[in-house]
């Protein structure tokens, strides 16, 4: 009897009596893409589709018709915005990724926040350690991808816009609008 009481107390201290945590999700509702030079970076077939009731994923292709080399002029930044209700009052958040070379972005942000989300649904680079240049020409395909929010910072429920902006030989953008539940 005493052993059972001790076991119950140990489980309670370890969180054994806590209800299961709810699964956080980020459902993409819209994707907008653009390129100032489609001959160098082209986006095709981008869409959001319903996977199941209340669950959405996005698909698309981008073709990189240039090789991105270490030290060239190709840079990226990420800006984030939040809205309580998703209707035109998106406000900038302090969580953003400053403009920097694409390789710094790949190592410092793509790998910890994005790579796990896309490694099973896309042909985007997956790597151990640091990204090794160059980023080769080719067509990268994303098929029914969803963001894995386990790798995201803690975000409140609401609507978000994530703008990934590229600069250099070509200016491009990928804008995701979605809802954090």
Structure description:
It holds the Pfam family DUF1091. Residues 1-22 form the signal peptide. InterPro entries: DUF1091. Keywords: Signal. By secondary structure, the chain is an alpha+beta fold. The protein has a single domain (30-180), classed as Ganglioside M2 Activator Protein, Chain: A (Distorted Sandwich). The chain contains 2 helices and 9 strands; from the N terminus they run αββββββαβββ. The protein has helices spanning 2-13, 102-118, and strands at residues 26-35, 41-52, 55-64, 75-83, 91-92, 97-101, 138-145, 158-167, 172-180. Strands 1, 4, 5, 6, 8 and 9 form a 6-stranded antiparallel sheet that branches. Strands 2-3-7 form a 3-stranded antiparallel sheet, with no helix packed on it.
Summarize the structure.
The protein is an alpha+beta fold and 181 residues long. The chain has helices spanning 2-13, 102-118, and strands at 26-35, 41-52, 55-64, 75-83, 91-92, 97-101, 138-145, 158-167, 172-180. The chain has a single domain, classed as Ganglioside M2 Activator Protein, Chain: A, CATH 2.70.220.
Helical amount? 10-25%
CATH fold annotation: Ganglioside M2 Activator Protein, Chain: A
Question: What is the succession of H and E elements?
Answer: HEEEEEEHEEE
**Number of DSSP E strands:** 9
Q: What is the residue-averaged pLDDT?
A: 86
N-C termini distance: 43 Å
CATH class: Mainly Beta
In angstroms, what is the radius of gyration? Answer: 20 Å
Large-scale geometry: globular
The CATH architecture term is: Distorted Sandwich
Please identify the structural class as seen in this structure.
alpha+beta
Please summarize the sheet with the most strands: 6 strands, antiparallel
- The tally of structural domains comes to 1
Any idea what the CATH superfamily is called?
A: Ganglioside GM2 activator
Strand content: 35-45%
Count every helix, treating DSSP H or I runs of 4 or more residues as helices. 2
Unreliable stretches: 1-21
């Amino acid at each position: 009897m005493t052993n059972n009481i001790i076991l119950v107390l140990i489980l309670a201290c370890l969180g054994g009596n806590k209800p299961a945590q709810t699964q956080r999700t980020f459902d993409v509702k819209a994707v907008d893409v653009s390129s100032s030079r489609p001959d160098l970076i082209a986006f095709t077939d981008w869409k959001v589709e319903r996977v199941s009731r209340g669950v959405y994923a996005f698909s698309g292709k981008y073709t990189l018709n240039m090789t991105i080399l270490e030290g060239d002029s190709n840079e990226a930044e990420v800006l984030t915005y939040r809205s309580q209700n998703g209707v035109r009052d998106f406000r900038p958040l302090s969580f953003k990724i400053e403009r920097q070379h694409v390789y710094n972005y790949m190592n410092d942000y793509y790998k910890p926040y994005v790579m796990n989300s896309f490694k099973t649904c896309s042909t985007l680079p997956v790597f151990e350690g640091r990204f090794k240049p160059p980023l080769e020409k080719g067509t990268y395909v994303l098929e029914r991808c969803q963001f894995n929010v386990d790798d995201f910072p803690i975000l409140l429920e609401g609507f978000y816009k994530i703008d990934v902006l590229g600069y250099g030989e070509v200016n491009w953008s990928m804008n995701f609008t979605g809802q954090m539940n």
